[in-house]
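Notes to self after the Tuesday call (sharing in case useful).
The group wants a holo model before anyone commits to mutagenesis around the pocket. I volunteered. Ligand is zinc ion. Logging inputs and output together so the record is complete.
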Amino acid sequence: MRPVKRDDAPIDSDGNPVNFKKYGDARPYLINRLGQYCSYCEIWLPMGLAVEHIQPKGNETALEKEWSNFLLSCPSCNSRKGKKVVNAENLHDYYWPHCDNTFRVFIYENDRAPQIAKSLNEAQQRIARN
Ligand SMILES: [Zn+2]
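Result:
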């Protein structure tokens, strides 16, 4: 899997972090950093990638336009993730493309949803299914 490295917030011409008026304004910056790929399933999409909120935007309004809360997602992964709330208690119940090496966890093949690697132990497979 390609590394999902979003790095620090983009900087404007005055040297300040870009202030996104709408979260969708972050899309070109994310594509510039991450390429036109879904951060979760790695599908290449020349159009239709959405700005994905790691924390659902409805639950944490302060994070709606926060760079550190953004990834890119295809429509399928975006709807599958839905509005799951991520907190300190369940953070490690998932493998995250910007934190974990998901190449170790999933097998990515063309035209197929990522498959869970059979080399994982039972607990790791449960996290991968999440
Ligand atoms: Zn996807």
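Two things stood out.
The chain has a mean pLDDT of 88.
Residues 23-129 form one domain.
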